[in-house]
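Lay summary. Proteins are chains of building blocks that fold into shapes, and those shapes determine what they do. In this project we predict the shape from the chain. Here is one chain we studied, written as its sequence of building blocks.
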Amino acid sequence: MGQHVLPGNPPVAITLRRSGRARRISLRVSGVDGRVTLTLPKNVPDQEGLAFVEEKSGWLRKQLDRHPDIETVGLGADLPIEGQTLRVLKGRGKRIIRDNEGIYVPGPENTVAARLQGWLKVQARERLVRASDHYAALLGRNYTRITLRDTRSRWGSCTHQGGLMYSWRLILAPPQVLEYVAAHEVAHLVEMNHSARFWSTVENIFPDYDEPRRWLRENGAALHRFRFETTPHD
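And here is the predicted shape, written in a compact code that computers can read:
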């Protein structure tokens, strides 16, 4: 994978990936969060792919215009953290600090998004480990590891080997939503399906799951609109 920028107003971040199975250059705009991916066959030079992007720039910007809600995180942005909307503000010292007024991120402005994303991942891991430990103990089961990713198609998963995967963006949702996803995935340690027995297991360890499940269904996609990538200024 590589990162490139299509100049213009605004500049567009392009993720370049290579695929041994690709037979032609393709340009895709995610319907979830508007991320742009340029896929190249193995032997096609980067410059040929970027020339393709330039040629399709009109089409690309029209596609991006369909995603007006995408927000680039930086100073002054409003960001939900554990369901509470906070303003990203300039911080002092070395640590990121959160209070009821905002979240204070120190350092140069062009590092704010990356530092904040790293901090959010740490918070997400702490809460997801704690929740997973709790629900696994209730079931008398053990998991093997926890992995955090920025998945767009699912909020969590459980492997047959007992590995749990979660989206770190769950830290943006209300705490009960994160708890529900942890209970849901831990329940797969008992039932690797979505049968009635599975949902009974979820209910045994997290009885009131209907509301957070509904919240995620209705509001989860909006958590992907926040972008933490920084793009260079012209």
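What the prediction tells us: The first strand starts at residue 2 and ends at 6.
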